[in-house]
Design brief:
The chain contains 1 helix and no strands. By secondary structure, it is mainly alpha-helical. The protein is rod-shaped, with a radius of gyration of 31 Å.
Length: 71
C-alpha cells in the first residue's frame, strides 16, 4: 500500500511538473511573440522617421532652390 501511495505521489509530481513545463513553454512563446511585435513596431517607427526626415530634407532643398532662384 505504501509503494502504491508513493507511486501515485510520484505520478502527481510528474503531472505537476509537466503542467509547469507547458506553462513555461507558453510563457516563452508569448514572450517571443511580444518581442517580435515590439521589434516590428520599432522597425516601423524607424521607417516612419526616415520617411519624415526625407520629406523634411526634400522641403528644405525646395526652399533653398526657391531662395537661390533668380528673381
Amino acid at each position: 500500500a505504501r509503494i502504491a501511495s508513493d507511486g501515485r505521489r510520484l505520478l502527481d509530481d510528474v503531472a505537476r511538473m509537466e503542467e509547469k513545463a507547458v506553462d513555461a513553454s507558453d510563457a516563452a512563446d508569448a514572450a517571443d511573440e511580444t518581442a517580435a511585435l515590439i521589434g516590428s513596431d520599432l522597425a516601423s517607427r524607424q521607417v516612419d522617421d526616415l520617411l519624415r526626415d526625407n520629406e523634411v530634407q526634400r522641403r528644405l532643398d525646395d526652399l533653398k532652390g526657391r531662395l537661390n532662384a533668380p528673381q
